[in-house]
């Protein structure tokens, strides 16, 4: 049981962060607006959660301009994907153990 | 957190993964209608050829042009119906009709399909008509398989079915017409019905 708890990652311990990683696991990248719509988050809320995930290097951010509009794309890093998989496995084990 | 919360997390993860990568509002009903159009079109072509040219299709003649026109008409009505019904369903699901998932779906569908269509036009230009029906089935099947990653699962099996029918049709050139009827008519109705009951009626 202790091992399972160890794999529950604090960095994912929030609905929005879990959501960001879920989307980035199955898509090459996602734009800020897409994430916002999918997760139903506000600008500030999403920005702070992406920053937190970037800080631990689970996601990487690319900023560019399309015409004059700034466009932000988020990618999951290899490290982030591995950690997320571990986290989900741990969740599933916890449910089964009950 | 309790295990119920974890369960909720997992289902939310699954939901987001699907929603962000797959277009789920494909209408089964439009598949059924496309199949019916194909059957009507095929019946008309069959009647045209058998009643006007003693069973032989004289190429570049008037009958051939009418068969091509018939085919284009079936294609046009199928696409128009699919766009109309799918848009309506997407609206009901509160899904956006034109976003990253639909763009990806369409692009991956069109690449094999357009390559195939150009190839068929080229070999028609070389007076090789025999394999047209088989090639249509084959490329349509490949287009479906390629697009299936970005939409509901049943499309993949329709794709496999079309490819197999296309290959068998290529071996039995005399029966291409009937394989075309099964592939584009019957199979659309079968898979459309399955999708209708699985996804539409919720």
Automatic annotation (TrEMBL), chain A:
- Return the Pfam families for the record: HTH_34
- Signal sequence span is none
| Classification via SUPFAM superfamilies | Winged helix' DNA-binding domain
State the name under which the record lists this protein. Answer: Transcriptional regulator
Which part of the chain is the Winged helix DNA-binding domain?
Answer: 16-95
Q: Which InterPro entries match?
A: WH-like_DNA-bd_sf (IPR036388), WH_DNA-bd_dom (IPR027395), WH_DNA-bd_sf (IPR036390)
UniProtKB/TrEMBL annotation, chain B:
Q: Where are the transmembrane segments?
A: 23-47, 67-85, 105-124, 178-197
Alphabetized, the UniProt keywords read:
Membrane, Transmembrane, Transmembrane helix
Put simply, this protein is called Uncharacterized protein
Q: Which organism is it from?
A: Tenacibaculum caenipelagi
